[in-house]
Write a structure and sequence with these properties.
By secondary structure, the chain is α/β, with parallel strands linked by helices. It contains 12 helices and 7 strands.
Length: about 375
């Protein structure tokens, strides 16, 4: 059976597309090395290796991009791209199998999203392009392709321009549709989170015991759940990740909750990811209790994703709520808890304040 011929121009387009992807990814990571280091830690890279890896990985990607552009080294570049994609795919698959969905941060600040099936599909497509270039060769040279374009007739140029405009329109429409679907998905998740944070499920009358734990804080002290609830007030466990931007955005509020409502509610952060990053956040935002959930074992026990998520534990050591996913549902847990208690420091004669500074309604709802 004869292998079907692959047009040399198609091979050129394929390797240039690969080069553009790897160049963009490498440059974006170098421009945001702190976040790249956090992402590597989220993927399970040992903390001592994240700093050098945050530099070496984007340099390798840029090297692959450079070799793909040159016709003489395109096959070697495609082989390097295939190796990197295989490593990336293995890391994504291992995290998904373990129930973890860290943010990919493949393109730095340009685009970052949690890993999933789409990440595997994207890598499979790029891997197929790499295999094609390794197998069939680099195709026509860039200079030859440009010379051929120079010989096009005005009619051919007009057709090429029309095709390019059509592709651009379809791409833009597809991008807007994707963003719309994502936004609707986020709204649905937020509504589910709000419903779960305020609606008591059947069976909550006989609440199950909260999973116990003993963890080290970012400042080295050992803290257990038993110690937290021994203070005889509800404990709010907030699950976060060093590489999660919504988690980072919530840290200032968590610090305020600890300072303003400390006599009514014990707020503690259980953080995954880079310990140094989590420690810096805690110091910067004056968050007193940040415990390191090294492998996410406690988050798994509570079925909470560090996106962020929160759950209440009653003073008797039993679950006081279902898991609230997202910043707004977590704020709802705070409001509900404060509304249900009296004697918050400095606020005993007035309704407790909403976590964002708005007075909470007296009936315990937002």
């Amino acid at each position: 059976m004869v292998d079907p011929a692959v047009p040399s121009e198609a091979l050129l387009v394929g390797r240039l597309a690969l080069a553009a992807v790897f160049a963009g990814a490498g440059a974006a990571k170098l421009a945001d090395r702190t976040r790249a280091r956090e992402a590597l830690a989220e993927f399970g890279v040992p903390e001592r290796l994240t700093a050098p890896a945050a530099v070496l990985l984007p340099l390798a990607e840029l090297g692959v991009a450079g070799t793909l552009v040159l016709t003489s080294s395109a096959r070697a570049g495609a082989a390097g791209a295939l190796v990197l994609l295989t490593v990336f795919t293995a890391a994504i698959a291992a995290n998904l199998a373990a129930g973890r969905t860290p943010e990919c941060h493949c393109f730095g600040q340009l685009h970052s999203s949690p890993i999933g099936a789409r990440s595997l599909v994207r890598n499979a497509v790029l891997g197929a392009l790499s295999v094609l270039v390794v197998w069939r060769g680099p195709g026509t040279g860039l200079g030859g392709a440009l010379a051929r374009l120079g010989r096009l007739s005005p009619t051919e140029w007009a057709g090429l321009a029309a095709a390019a405009v059509l592709c651009l329109i379809v791409t833009i429409q597809g991008w807007f549709l994707l963003q719309l679907l994502r936004q609707q998905g986020r709204l649905l998740l937020r509504l589910e989170g709000l419903e779960s944070s305020f609606g008591e499920e059947e069976g909550m009358a006989r609440r199950s015991p909260a999973a116990g734990f003993t963890l080290r804080s970012v400042f080295g002290e050992s803290v257990s759940l038993a110690e937290l609830v021994a203070e005889r007030r509800p404990a709010l466990l907030v699950f976060t990740s060093s590489g999660c931007r919504p988690c980072t955005a919530l840290f200032p509020e968590i610090g305020r909750w600890q300072r303003d409502y400390g006599e009514a509610l014990t707020v503690v952060v259980l953080a995954r990811g880079d310990s140094a990053v989590n420690q810096a956040k805690a110091a910067r935002e004056r968050v007193a209790r940040v415990l390191i959930d090294v492998d996410g074992a406690v988050a798994k026990a509570y079925r909470a994703l560090p996106t962020p998520s929160g759950v209440l534990v009653s003073p008797d050591g039993r679950l006081g709520s279902v898991v609230a996913a997202g910043a707004d549902p977590i704020r709802g847990l705070v409001v509900r808890t404060l509304d249900g208690r009296h004697g918050v420091t400095g606020r005993s004669s007035q309704a407790p304040a909403h976590p964002n500074g708005v007075s909470a309604p007296s009936h315990g709802r937002l």
